[in-house]
Design a protein that fits this description.
eight-stranded mixed β-sheet, four-stranded parallel β-sheet
Length: about 500
């Protein structure tokens, strides 16, 4: 707590007093001081450090009525003290320096909120100078995370929306036969260690229900190991290549493909024509969350967005209590990035020429970012040779660990499995043709109604944001306002709506 109480200014307003005895605001005319503070500000979205009695924040709201403001205090006790002195509008998000990062990641959207400016109130920062470094670090970390997310949305926003809407239009049935969950779920990634650990699958195939990631599928097929389930969450067209040139393994027609709604429709169509069962799942995209209000579709937790975590969550939601990992290296080892036999190997061979060898291709892949030494033995893999990892791969590995801890799986070093002691039940939702037809009709009618209502009120609905991020990146949209971009996003959605109605 940095405040001791309040006193009255000469203009009769209550002003906050620090424990040092110094006032937060002017004792003569705090309103005028606040007005001068606001007049100097330029920007679209603000982090204001120091709340006090809030005169400066209200003045800033008056100058920037449409701006979002993050008002930050040193600790929760000081924040509660300030909240008792004044009431702010819904545009002001109150926080402490300790949860500022969390609040920014949750509420700040560069598409709709614009650029972010950080303002330190002079008397406040003189009182708590040590807070400046903490706050600056929190803002930097939050904006870095938001920037990564925005970059992803800017790259995939249009593809995601196209794929989700096309897949919903063509969805007729969404069900599959459940496996025997007493066995161990083998989670297969495509790391280099899979070359050796695959021998366990060949010798004791009957002990496992195999959940293969899309990249590992072709590797297993070449060894004549069929997968019970294949999981794919990649919205790019390259995802079809995981399956297109794959040599069919024995019994591979039994394989069920669990696919994210954002998967290209061409991939789903290809697999269904090959005679495979497909099951579509939902992710965190706002459009799929909207669809979940009407359609019975299972929502998969893919954590940081990796297909390995999506495979784990598929097994958990079917009721598997034992998970064992194969090829989950999260590093480069034995001088390779992937196990032998993936579609990437074919790409290397295809692109090889006199000036661009396979080794050049691998080296280019390795050194995209800085590498560091990694452990030869982890809870996911053993006996790695000269392993090297990157910050991105470390974040993926940590994301998997967090998922396992969150879902109460603990590591059993004796048999190298992750086990959940609870009795898990199947959570997958199955839907027949009639049920899906009615649900889709309701979804598209309500979606059209909500968009038309939002256009009248000039509101931005959440499921427009990823596509807006993509639109914002296009040169021809420079200078367009957020709502102009939103209207373009709405028109794109309604075009697919018309295709359904047609």
């Amino acid at each position: 707590m940095i405040y001791s109480g309040t006193c009255k200014a000469k203009t009769e307003e209550e002003i906050a007093i620090f424990k040092s005895g110094k006032p937060m605001h002017s004792k003569y005319n705090p309103q005028n001081e606040a007005k001068l503070f606001a007049e100097k500000t330029e920007g679209e979205c603000f982090v204001i450090c120091g709340i006090g009695t809030g005169f400066h924040i209200k003045a800033l709201e008056k100058k920037h009525p449409k701006s979002k403001i993050f008002a930050c205090e040193t600790d929760s006790e000081s924040l509660e003290f300030c909240k008792a002195l004044t009431v702010f509008s819904s545009n002001v998000i109150l926080c402490t320096k300790d949860n500022l990062k969390e609040k920014l990641i949750k509420f700040y959207n560069p598409i709709t909120d614009g650029s972010l400016s950080v303002l330190f109130y002079r008397t406040w920062i003189l009182e708590v100078p040590e807070a400046k470094e903490h706050i600056s670090k929190a803002v930097n970390e939050a904006t870095e995370a938001i920037s990564r997310d925005f970059s992803t949305q800017a790259h995939f926003g249009k593809i995601w929306e196209r794929n989700i809407l096309l897949n919903l239009i063509n969805l007729k049935e969404n069900s599959f036969s459940l496996p025997e969950t007493k066995k161990t779920a083998a989670i297969i990634a495509a790391g280099p260690s899979l070359n050796k650990s695959m021998e366990e699958l060949i010798k004791h195939r009957e002990n496992y229900i195999i959940f293969s990631t899309d990249t590992a599928y072709s590797i297993l097929c070449k060894k004549n190991i069929y997968s019970d389930f294949v999981i794919s969450v990649d919205g790019q067209h390259i995802s079809t290549e995981h399956f297109r040139k794959t040599k069919n393994a024995s019994q591979s027609k039994k394989t069920t493909f669990i696919l994210d709604l954002s998967i290209p429709h061409e991939t789903i169509d290809f697999l269904q024509k090959k005679g495979h069962a497909t099951y579509l799942t939902a992710n965190r995209h706002p459009l799929t969350l909207e669809a979940l209000q009407y359609l019975k579709i299972t929502k998969l937790n893919s954590g940081s967005g990796t297909v390995t975590i999506a495979a784990c969550d598929s097994a958990r939601q079917m009721g598997f209590t034992k998970l064992k990992f194969f090829g989950a290296d999260f590093c480069y080892s034995s001088g390779a990035s992937y196990a032998r036999g993936s579609y990437l190997e074919n790409e290397r061979v295809r692109k090889e020429n006199k000036t661009f060898s396979q080794e050049t291709w691998e080296t280019k892949l390795f050194f995209r970012t800085a590498l560091e030494e990694s452990s030869k033995n982890t809870e996911f893999t053993k006996n790695l040779v000269n392993p090297r990892t990157s910050r991105t791969l470390i974040s993926y590995r940590n994301g998997l660990k967090e998922w396992l801890i969150e879902n109460e799986y603990t590591y059993n070093s004796l048999n190298e499995t992750w086990e959940n002691k609870a009795k898990l039940q199947n959570c997958f939702l199955m839907s027949g043709q009639k049920e899906i037809k009615v649900a889709k009709e309701n979804f598209y009618v309500k979606l059209k109604e909500k968009i038309n209502e939002a256009l009248k009120k000039e509101e931005i609905l959440p499921y427009a944001l990823p596509y807006m991020a993509w639109l914002k990146k296009q040169e021809e949209n420079n200078g367009r306002s957020s709502f102009e971009l939103c209207k373009l996003a709405y028109s794109h959605t309604l075009r697919y709506n018309s295709r359904y109605e047609g």
